[in-house]
Amino acid sequence: MTQFTQTLLAGVDSSDAENWQLKNYARRSGYSAIRKILSNKISPDSVIEEVKKSALRGRGGAGFPTGLKWSFMPKQYEGDKYIVCNSDEGEPGTFKDRDIMRHNPHILIEGMIIAAYAMGVKVGYNYIHGEIWDTYERMEEAVEEARAAGYLGNNILGSNFSFNLYNHHGYGAYICGEETALLESIEGKKGQPRFKPPFPANYGLYGKPTTINNTETFASVPWIILNGGEQYLKLGKPNNGGTKLFSVSGHVNKPGNYEIPMGTPFATLLEMAGGMRGGKKLKACIPGGSSMPVLPGEIMMQTDMDYDSIAKAGSMLGSGAVIIMDETTCMVKALERLSYFYFEESCGQCTPCREGTGWLYRIVNRIEHGKGLMEDLDLLDNIADNIQGRTICALGDAAAMPVRAMIQHFRNEFIYHIEHKKCMV
Amino acid sequence: MLSPESLKKIDHEIAKYPIDKKQSAVMSALAIAQDEKGWLANETMNFVAKYLGMPPIAVYEVATFYNMYNLEPLGEYKITVCTNLPCALSGGNDVANYVKKKLSIGFNQTTADGKFTLKEGECMGACGDAPVLLVNNKRMCSFMTNDMIDQLLEELSK
């Protein structure tokens, strides 16, 4: 098997109960990136330039260039500013941030310290998914370790730079992965997304300038500072810098997280994940988490794993959650479960999403249960049309896109269900 | 209304936020209250509201919005099984059906002895460990098989 350079989990041994601790992170040259910045007095602007050079793009789903996002924060602002880490990992198929936090928590803390330095921020919050209590406790311990060692708090490593970091535990709401819903949630409210603009860089947490990044994004920063943005970019391909964790789930022999360079062929990733379970045939794959369009197996096998290649193939890299489905999978049933999820998790704020997700679920449900009508296929398209692009946040799009892609690529299966009142597989 | 231990934990959470932003601690305060009481009665939520200086309605809004709060008394152990697509592809529904059969209850039901309540869950962010279930919001059990469910239920029944 090919050995790839790792930037996130290099040297991490998850079977060792103490491997996550600060002393072991330090042995893996941990905290030397922030030491380098402070002892060489590298300016905040130079840090941002280095991140821009790396072509690091947001690892949470949207893929926005990280350095550019950091440069949006107002520099001369007198009051408080915040950075927030989005560890509310609830996109079905995604479980990479959990592994970063439980197996290598200090790389996230160091990444956030560097980000805070670059943007002139004194306080950060890490918002952790509700269902992973053990991981929250691990982060609480790690933050205490970092504080005791002088990496968090006032005058970090004897410099003028101060930064404090706190963990915030979520309690079961998919929508809080949307960055403005997450801010509302930290403020102690229902997690309902805010209308944008204003964007968080101007009006964020408590109405102050705020930058929100995904866990993996922050965790990618220490390597970039130590080795240079150009080196990071070279690991991947132009416009798609670095390595990325892909969470592989579903019908494979070895589900799990695999860190590979951007641009690695999907076939290689599938092989790393042990290949298809039971030697069955790959039927379909959702390459970027449940909100992204599904692709037929034969298209996936020709595709590389990076933002631009997956977009060219007709889907999106999203969070890097690769859901594998073999030939025994009923696509109607698969879509029924996903549609139920979006119906259940819609925050109820925008009418097209609140009502539309219910419609989508009920129609797919009746097709699955042999009560579908042929005109339902057009009706589903019509409802998806009336949701997509008509809501405050992207949950509406996330509910609509899988429906359209499933019907586009597996239309025959839906027709079979309607005509024969049973499953094709 | 809440034990000194719980209040200490809530104070620890309040200290994470700016001094005039106590409301930010409401999610953890409700979770801590639920750990102590088992569920969130109106009087518990009213206490939390008073403690954080919030209108009670603002606390109810939070408690009813997030899925992991218990708004009614449940069994001693709440078992939440993820049946979302990635888990379903790896036996999530089989696990749910097995627990249903073992306990002779369906989703959102509690056993006659008040020991177990079964819930259907959404993505827990652990799809690589499927099938996955969660006991009382905190203890995640991974790669569940029928044997492991037998062991778990026996352990919790003691």
Could you please describe the fold and organization of this structure?
The complex is a heterodimer of chains A (425) and B (158). Chain A is an alpha/beta fold and 425 residues long. Chain A contains 18 helices and eleven strands. In chain A, helix 3 packs across helix 6 (105-119), helix 6 packs across helix 9 (215-227) and helix 14 runs antiparallel to helix 15. The longest helix of chain A has 18 residues, at 351-368. Chain A starts with 21 loop residues before the first helix and ends in a 5-residue tail after the last helix. The radius of gyration of chain B is 17 Å and the shape is elongated. Chain B has helices spanning 4-14, 26-37, 42-52, 56-65, 85-88, 92-103, 146-157; strands spanning 77-82, 109-110, 116-121, 133-135, 139-141. Chain B folds into two domains: 4-65, Arc Repressor Mutant, subunit A (Orthogonal Bundle); 77-157, Glutaredoxin (3-Layer(aba) Sandwich). Chain B contains seven helices and five strands; from the N terminus they run H-H-H-H-E-H-H-E-E-E-E-H. Chain B is of the alpha+beta class. Chain B starts with a helix and ends with a helix. Chain B has a five-stranded mixed sheet with strand order 2-3-1-4-5, with helices on one face. The longest helix of chain B has 12 residues, at 26-37. The chains are: A alpha/beta (425), B alpha+beta (158). Chains A and B meet through strand 3, strand 5, strand 11 and helix 14 of A and helix 2, helix 4 and helix 5 of B.
Write the layout of secondary structure elements.
The complex is a heterodimer of chains A (425) and B (158).
Chain A: H1 22-27, H2 32-39, H3 44-54, H4 66-71, E1 82-87, H5 96-103, H6 105-119, E2 123-128, H7 133-148, E3 164-169, H8 179-186, E4 210-214, H9 215-227, H10 229-235, E5 243-250, E6 256-261, E7 264-265, H11 266-272, E8 282-286, E9 295-296, H12 297-300, E10 304-305, H13 307-313, E11 321-326, H14 331-345, H15 351-368, H16 376-387, H17 395-409, H18 411-420
Chain B: H1 4-14, H2 26-37, H3 42-52, H4 56-65, E1 77-82, H5 85-88, H6 92-103, E2 109-110, E3 116-121, E4 133-135, E5 139-141, H7 146-157
Parallel strand pairs in B: 1-3
Antiparallel strand pairs in B: 1-4, 2-3, 4-5
Helix pairs in contact in B: 1-2, 2-3, 3-4
